[in-house]
């Protein structure tokens, strides 16, 4: 066995949702428990990697050996990712909100006229990293899909210019659940993994990352 296969590697993981405040007491967000991303961060650390985990608002414990940076909004996540560079690999698991609101400074009162939310686009952290001069050697995105999972993930891989997309079938009870069914979409094709626990997905993905970062041994 080679338990420290990722020793000397610095790997970035984003996880969880982002919260985009509407006012001091309200926000919009995507659904995400953060569990898959946290499990991946832990599995990479278990293989010896130095792991920086940029986490949106979740109530999960920090996995052993992981450096965690907590953020709230997508713009804060983008800044934290930028500050974590350079990295050998990045695995972007976070369910980043696509828009933010021009937040009110004071709580909006219910008795007032019903407010209209004016949304502005958030930075695409993954696409920005893909175009960055500091693009990691291995850049991995996630895609949560409810239908035509592989087809959408294949298109997303090309559009975002990333190495792998881990396509997540969220048509069942994956959100907040214990298990996950994923397809690994690379330039060479698609690997479909059996439905398994999120910790097992994380361990298998960490081994796959170690394989990719390790030059093939000469015969
Ligand atoms: O385009 P879509 O949001 O489906 O892409 C999902 C992938 O892109 C995930 O890896 C997610 O973490 C990343 N992403 C990001 N910043 C955004 C939106 C998505 O890093 N603003």
Automatic annotation (TrEMBL):
Catalytic reaction(s) noted: N-[(R)-4-phosphopantothenoyl]-L-cysteine + H(+) = (R)-4'-phosphopantetheine + CO2; (R)-4'-phosphopantothenate + L-cysteine + CTP = N-[(R)-4-phosphopantothenoyl]-L-cysteine + CMP + diphosphate + H(+)
Ranges of residues in domain DNA/pantothenate metabolism flavoprotein C-terminal: 6-211
E.C. designation(s): 4.1.1.36, 6.3.2.5
Residues of the full protein shown: 178 to 396 of 397
Spans annotated as Phosphopantothenate--cysteine ligase: 11-219
Its job: Catalyzes two steps in the biosynthesis of coenzyme A. In the first step cysteine is conjugated to 4'-phosphopantothenate to form 4-phosphopantothenoylcysteine, in the latter compound is decarboxylated to form 4'-phosphopantotheine.
GO biological process: coenzyme A biosynthetic process; pantothenate catabolic process
GO cellular component: phosphopantothenoylcysteine decarboxylase complex
Keywords: Decarboxylase, Flavoprotein, FMN, Ligase, Lyase, Magnesium, Metal-binding, Multifunctional enzyme
Binding positions (CTP): 98, 107, 123-126, 142, 156, 160
The keyword Flavoprotein is assigned to this record: yes
Cofactor entry: FMN; Mg(2+)
Pathway(s) it belongs to: Cofactor biosynthesis; coenzyme A biosynthesis; CoA from (R)-pantothenate: step 3/5; Cofactor biosynthesis; coenzyme A biosynthesis; CoA from (R)-pantothenate: step 2/5
Cofactor note: Binds 1 FMN per subunit.
UniProt name for this protein: Coenzyme A biosynthesis bifunctional protein CoaBC
MF terms in GO: FMN binding; metal ion binding; phosphopantothenate--cysteine ligase activity; phosphopantothenoylcysteine decarboxylase activity
Family: In the N-terminal section; belongs to the HFCD (homo-oligomeric flavin containing Cys decarboxylase) superfamily. In the C-terminal section; belongs to the PPC synthetase family.
Species whose genome carries this gene: Sphingomonas aerolata
């Amino acid at each position: 066995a080679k338990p420290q296969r990722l020793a000397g590697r610095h790997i970035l993981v984003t996880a969880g949702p982002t919260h985009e405040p509407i006012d001091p007491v309200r926000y919009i967000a995507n659904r995400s428990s953060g569990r898959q991303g946290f499990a991946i961060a832990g599995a990479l650390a278990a293989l010896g990697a130095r792991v920086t985990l940029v986490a949106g608002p979740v109530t999960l414990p920090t996995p052993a050996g992981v450096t965690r940076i907590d953020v709230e909004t997508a713009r804060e996540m983008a800044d934290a990712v930028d500050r974590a560079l350079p990295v050998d690999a990045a695995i972007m698991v976070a369910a980043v909100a696509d828009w933010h609101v021009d937040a009110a400074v004071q709580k909006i009162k219910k008795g007032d006229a019903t407010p209209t939310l004016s949304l502005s686009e958030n930075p695409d952290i993954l696409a920005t990293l893909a175009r960055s001069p500091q693009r990691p050697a291995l850049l991995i995105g996630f895609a949560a899909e409810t239908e035509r999972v592989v087809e959408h993930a294949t298109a997303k891989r090309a559009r975002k210019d990333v190495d792998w997309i881990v396509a997540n079938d969220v048509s069942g009870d994956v959100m907040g659940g214990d298990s996950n069914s994923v397809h690994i979409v690379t330039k060479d094709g698609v690997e479909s993994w059996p439905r398994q626990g999120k910790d097992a997905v994380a361990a298998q993905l960490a081994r796959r990352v170690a394989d990719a970062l390790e030059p093939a041994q000469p015969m």
